Amino acid sequence: MGPSMVVVGAVDGGGGDAAVAAARIGVDVRLVGAVGADAGGLLDGLRREGVTVDDVVVTESGHLEAPHVRAVVNGVAELGAVLVTCEVPAAAIAAGVGTATGLRVPVVLDPAPVVHTVVGLFDLHPVLTPNAGELTELLRLGGGERAAAPASTAAGAATLHSWTGAPVVVTLGAEGALLAAEGRVRRLPAHDAPVRDATGAGHTLTGVLTAGLAAGQEVEDALVVATVAAGLTAAAPGGRDAMPTGDALAAALDE
């Protein structure tokens, strides 16, 4: 088994989706979240997918606490990367990003939805993965209305990259993705397949991207694989059910 990755996020939302996407391709994934007492079926489904859910807290409120996030991330042996989604409380988001940064492992921050907390974490250099609308909102929060009206999406990605000093991935659906890294912006095309159902495709991308970073890949190489995985998800109906296995992804990459 290679390095592990941790996903901090909503068990029944983007966090769970991204964890399944990574587990489908054979990565050791631990999901950190909180659910209510009636979520046993949801957890059973994630276990069947190969996601470790031992660190999902079952509480009456379903509220994820920052100390729990820090304890889990600090306690994972062979930790390769951490993915944090913004569907959890602000303190939990900050705990996930901050702890991963302290351990010097790659951290991906999916700003969906965009919250003020993300701007406060720019100095920790997470890899941000906004879509075009989220990019605009991040630029607005970070630099005001003028910054939120760049000449192009690529220019906006470059600006956000200059603020964080880390790679920025802007997901563009059927148009692929933009990668702003090392002072330049390049476009990666989408996987060449018709889109039937885009549900879960974005979360597939973030999950597989983080898996690649956990395995030691460079961001651009990991993103190439992640865009293909997202395209395979969008090419079939079913959301999580459409996420590719490792064999299916390898076959598509060989085409």
UniProtKB/TrEMBL annotation:
A Pfam family of this chain: PfkB
Signal peptide: none
Domain Carbohydrate kinase PfkB, chain residue ranges per copy: 100-245
Record keywords: Kinase, Transferase
InterPro entries: PfkB_dom (IPR011611), Ribokinase-like (IPR029056)
Name recorded for this polypeptide: Carbohydrate kinase PfkB domain-containing protein
Source taxonomy: Bacteria, Bacillati, Actinomycetota, Actinomycetes, Pseudonocardiales
